[in-house]
Structures are given as C-alpha cells and as structure tokens.
Amino acid sequence: MTQILGFNRHDVVLCLNLFKMNVRDRYLGSSLGSVWAVANPFFLLGVYTFVFGFVFKVRLPGAETTLGYVLWLISGYGAWMATTESLLTATSSVASAAGLVKNMVFKTELLPIAASLMGLISLAVSLFFLLVLKVFAGSEFTWHILCLPIIILIHFLFVCSLGLWLAAINVFVRDVAQALPNLLTVLMFMTPIFYSIESMPRIVQKISIGNPLYLIAESYRRILLGGEAPRWGAVAYVFLLSLVILTTGLRAFRQVKGRFNSAL
C-alpha cells in the first residue's frame, strides 16, 4: 500500500474518525452538542464586528465607512482564530487521550494531526461570516478565490507540523499547554492582525517579513479583500518551512512515542 511520510489510506480514514470524535467529545453533555463548534466562533466574530464597527468605529485610511476595517480584520483574524484553535487542541491531544494511547495500538502521531483539523471549523465560519459581510457591502470576489484552497492546505500543513512538536513535548512537560495560550496572545499582538504592518515599529516590520503567521494571514487578505493572487514567493517559503518542521516533527515524535506510556 502506498505510503506518504509513513501514512497510508487507512491512517487517513482513522484521522478523520479521530477528528469527528474530537468534535463530539468537545461538546459532550451540552444540549446543543457540536452546534457550539459553529456558534462560538460566530459569536466572537459578531462581537468584534460590533465593537470595531459600531463602538470604536475604526476606519482604514481613505475608507468612508467602518465596514472596510471590519472586513480587513476578520479576513486576517479568522485565520489566526483557526491557528489558535488548532494549536491549543493539538498540544493537549496526546495527554488527554491517555486511555487510547495506553490501550490501543495505532499511530499516535495521528492524534495531533486530527486535533489540528479542529481549526477548520472556525475558519469555515469566519469565511462564511466574511462572505455575508461582503455581500452586505456590495463587494464581489474575483477569480483569485480559486487560490484559497492552496492557502488553506499550506496553512494547516504548517499548523499540523507545529502541533506534532507541541503534542510530544507536552506529554513530558505539561506546562506547555498552560503557557501556550499566553504565548499565542503575545504573538497575536506582535503580528499585524489587528493593525497594518505599516503602523508597527520598523524592527517588527522586518521580522514580520519572515513570520509565517503573518504571511498566512496576509495571503487570505490578498485573496478575499484585495482581489489579488497571494505572493507566491511567500507561499513557497511557508510551504517549505512547513515541510521541514513536519518531517523533523514526525521523526522526533516517533522516536519518543515509545516513552509515552510511562509519562502519561
């Protein structure tokens, strides 16, 4: 059977089943169940739209209404929200599945990969929310929207690669899961998500050029708002970086997973 990076077709099926299990277990016991997976990001985006569009009334330079900034914000923040959801879930994926790891024989590296896919839900919600706002604003998408699947694929390749490292480290150092939300908050405000890169200090602007999180958000913005193709050089850079992190992460994960039982 054909394998890619040590995975075969059966592993893909198992990964999808683990993803469904993650969604079901996340909201187990609640009345609405997995509906919360859509309701939570939708509510958060609604709050940001109200706060920045109607309370602070932030406008982009040269814009006549506040809706332009809201569209710009959501097009980048939606990607960041998906990244955050994926990394937080992936980091605790192995530690929280101790029963499965100890009692079942399967490729445990599928756990952080499946957990990373959780961010796809919030990304889909943000894209739908943005679509509704663009229709309301009378804007249209260009043919460049066809580039979106490529960006989504590379986005989650990058997230999965980080998730493998974080999940493995968190088994032995549980503080990683506790510190990660704070670290992601700091990174969010150091990355041009809520404000343009031109408004940041020059040193941060230079760093952002190599920041894959910024390049991913900027690619979404160019496609969804600018009606432009992403900067393919930046896309290639993120793709190659993701491959390096993924291959080294898989190698490291597989080397230490034999010690998971004693650490969990």
Give a quick rundown of the structure:
The protein is 70% helix and 0% strand. The chain has 264 residues and is mainly α. It has one domain.
Give a structural overview.
Helix 1 crosses helix 5 (110-116) and helix 5 packs across helix 7 (148-172). With 264 residues, the chain is an all-alpha fold. The protein has one domain (9-263). 70% of the residues lie in helices and 0% in strands. The protein contains twelve helices and no strands. The protein has helices at residues 9-26, 36-55, 67-91, 98-103, 110-116, 119-137, 148-172, 175-190, 202-208, 212-224, 232-256, 260-263. The two termini are 32 Å apart.
Helical percent range? over 70%
* Approximate shape: globular
Q: For the report, how would you describe the main beta sheet?
A: none
State the helix count: 12
Structural class: mainly alpha
Rg over alpha carbons: 19 Å
Element order, helices and strands? HHHHHHHHHHHH
Low-confidence stretches: none
Mean of residue pLDDT values: 91
